[in-house]
Amino acid sequence: MSYQPPSGPPPIYGSSSGYASPPGPPPNHDKAPSIDNAPPPYHDWTVIPDTSTLPPPPALSHDFSTGANATGDEAERGRTWCFLFPLWSPRPMSSEQLQAARAQNHTLIKAETYVGDLLQHNPGPGIWKCWTFAGCKDSLIQTALPNYSAPADSPMVTGRSKMIYFEIKIHSVGRQGPPPSPPETADAGVAIGFFAPPYPSFRLPGWQRGSLGVHSDDGRRYVNNTDGGLDFTQPFLAGQTVGLGMTFSIPRNPPAYDVQENLLDVEVFFTRDGRKQGSWDLHEEMDQDQEGVQGLEGNYDLFPAVGVWGGCDFEIRFQEKDWMYRP
């Protein structure tokens, strides 16, 4: 049997299909673009975040001092000494020693390199007169007893803050008269600071581990820094009285996740002629190449110290009644 197609055109083409297209052009010719074709939401990147709660950036350490610089051999000798003699554990003191330390009745010990004299002021025991000669090399003067005893003074033990502080009155430092032009390396100077024992007596406070100090020749602060220190204040001048203190307090914030113990809050502050002139947080942000603050955080005993080189004349004042600064 043969197949015969129906007569006429296919139904779709005929007028009898019954389907009428909607009026007007296709929808996409006259409507707004769909949401898929719209630009992405506008991100308000112009809003400036609040950085007031972030810690300040670390202070930049200098490679060299603008004043006097010890030689590389002396710095290496200091590092070797500290490697051979690690920090001592805190040592308990007798009641008599604690009483003397808290009354600031200190005896001074001078380095073998110290060329000059130490004389306790009469009638009071809290003032020592010190002078050195031009040939004096870097030398440390320290007390026989600590100003801060970790077993007795730590806020973790007592539940209250502890401040240690002392002053030096500068009569003369090195060459007298106006500074030379161009400037020369300082021929003399003093440094005021603290250290955790033992400490090399031929190094200034702030240069080796477990120590900090502010130096007269450049006004910089040093914390375990054998290089050029960090900018801090103006150099010390004859006739001025400068002081250095540390305040240890119960921590205000919980320890960080990577810290095993709750560190004390420690503020280091500097005064000049009785006025507080600057301070820093011991646990501030540091450059990666800085070597830390071990020994200074309140878990070791701390001794006041004065470093000196060249010809100087000054007084060390330990007792509050003789300070210019009033806490």
From TrEMBL:
InterPro entries hit by this protein: B30.2/SPRY_sf, SPRY_dom, SPRY_Ssh4-like, Ubq-SigPath_Reg
Main location group: membrane
Record keywords, A-Z: Membrane, Transmembrane, Transmembrane helix
GO cellular-component term (any): membrane
Region (Disordered): 1-73
Biased composition (Pro residues): 1-12
Protein name as it appears in the record: SPRY domain-containing protein
Organism: Tothia fuscella
